Amino acid sequence: MKAGTIVGRVWATKRLSKLPSGALMEVALDDTSDTSSAERIIAFDPLGCAEGERVLVTQGSVARGWFKDANLVDALIIGSLDEEVQKQTSKSGQRRAAR
Amino acid sequence: MKAGTIVGRVWATKRLSKLPSGALMEVALDDTSDTSSAERIIAFDPLGCAEGERVLVTQGSVARGWFKDANLVDALIIGSLDEEVQKQTSKSGQRRAAR
Amino acid sequence: MKAGTIVGRVWATKRLSKLPSGALMEVALDDTSDTSSAERIIAFDPLGCAEGERVLVTQGSVARGWFKDANLVDALIIGSLDEEVQKQTSKSGQRRAAR
Amino acid sequence: MKAGTIVGRVWATKRLSKLPSGALMEVALDDTSDTSSAERIIAFDPLGCAEGERVLVTQGSVARGWFKDANLVDALIIGSLDEEVQKQTSKSGQRRAAR
Amino acid sequence: MKAGTIVGRVWATKRLSKLPSGALMEVALDDTSDTSSAERIIAFDPLGCAEGERVLVTQGSVARGWFKDANLVDALIIGSLDEEVQKQTSKSGQRRAAR
Fold first, then answer.
1. CA atoms of C64 and B59, how far apart (whole Å)
2. C39 touches chain E (CB under 8 A)
3. A22, C21, D5, E62: least CB-packed within 10 angstroms?
């Protein structure tokens, strides 16, 4: 998966019918340590995330497999990252088996 | 998915028979914030888009899965982006159906 | 798909038996507008293309799916680009069958 | 596969139910010889690795295929690299089982 | 496919059981004309190649499909390149149908 930040939203009125209706978010991926070259993708968002939210994205046929019917989604937001918690626990906490 | 801009069209008379007939568009992807290194792909266009149009592209086996028969397409234009609308609504908060 | 130019050919006498016999061409992809960083791939060529020829390449499981039997090809030349024609027609508007 | 180093861990309380519970590790991949541009991915860790550990990661539908049920994982830690051993054996020629 | 050069070998004693036993080679891919940014991958080697050998690698689900059983390999060495022969024949020889 990739971590990234939602930087916008796009709409496509003229579209193929197999693109499911729902939010299409523009995500700047944390692809490298060099943020100036952040990769931009458009991901389907079933979680109702907001601009600026840090998210986890899965790509390719794995993203499409989440839907029950054949569709055209190759990038899917699968979680919203708990960032504050993350920094505390990586100092204070032991490896937490399956939070 | 990736957002991009159609920058041209290509033809291939000498081709494998499983490449479906139809428009093959050259698309410069909005891949990074650095536009000088925009990735170029050739995408099949079932929507009849024009040069300069902003489009949404899906890639890999997800693109091939749109066709009923076995074929060779690994990049497909699945929508045309409503850019003017996008900027207005991201301020006014209209059309947030799926949030 | 990606457009590219054939820049060489490779041979592999020591190989797995599921790599089909046939031409293996080295292709420099038109990946970005910056040609100095052109990506190089090795693509199977069922069309009999020559060095210097401009070609269209499909990748991944879509390339493998072209073959009847299980095989190891993840990049396939699927067409030869009609470049001269392309530039004329994009001005005169001929051959716009699928628009 | 890719080799990389675990550089952190992320949590996602708000998530799709098909993302399996378990550790999600941030991995800086040894992608190029230029370490300043190391690609960052989030990989599912079934092996209980620690921060700083060198790991082997598989990606895409191959990662998803490891799970019994449909899921959303497109990057999976599949091994922990024996680095000290590697350097000794590449000199002394031990453990060359598969050569 | 990608051409590359074997630059090392890795071992992973702590591993998932579905990673088949056998050699795991580090390969520097001929990814671009700029060799300083060569992409590094870890590929399974069923051919018994040596360090410094020039090889052909297939990736993704196509690599996994070579194995009879479910497994975790997403990069596979499928051939060893005949480099000397290649340079001679690209000058002296005509396109050789299926060497």
1. 15
2. yes
3. C21
Chain D residues touching A94 at Cβ < 8 A: none
Q: Considering only CB atoms, which chain B residues are within 8 Å of C1?
A: 24, 41-44, 72-75
Mean pLDDT for the stretch of residues D34-59 = 91
Contact predicate C15/C72, CB 8 Å: no
Distance, CA of A56 to CA of C52 (rounded, Å) = 42
CB atoms within 10 A of CB D34: 10
ipTM attached to this prediction = 0.85
| Domain C2-92: CATH class, spelled out | mainly beta
Is D75 touching A (CB cutoff 8 A)? yes
- Please name the residue that has the structure tokens 């020559």: C50
Which residues in C lie closer than 8 A to residue E86 (C-beta atoms)?
8-11
- Residue D15: pLDDT band (50, 70, 90) is very high
Q: Tell me the pLDDT tens digit for each residue of C85-95.
A: 445 444 444 34
Q: Which chains touch B (3 or more CB pairs under 8 A)?
A: A, C
Instruction: Pick the residue from chain B with its C-alpha nearest to A44.
Output: B1
C51-67 exposure pattern, b = at least 16 Cβ within 10 A, e = fewer = eebbbbbbbbbbbbbbe
Nearest CA-CA distance, residue A94 and chain B, Å: 35
Q: Does A20 touch chain B (CB under 8 A)?
A: no
Closest listed residue to residue D72, CA positions, set D82, D84, D60, D64: D64
Rounded Cα gap, residues E96 and E53, in angstroms? 24
User: For chain C, which chains pass the contact test of at least 3 CB pairs under 8 Å?
Assistant: B, E
Q: How far is CA C92 from CA A71, B71, C96, D46, E2, in A?
A: 36, 30, 10, 59, 39
Backbone angles phi, psi at E21, to 5 degrees: -75, 150
The domain segmentation of chain E, as residue ranges, is: 2-92
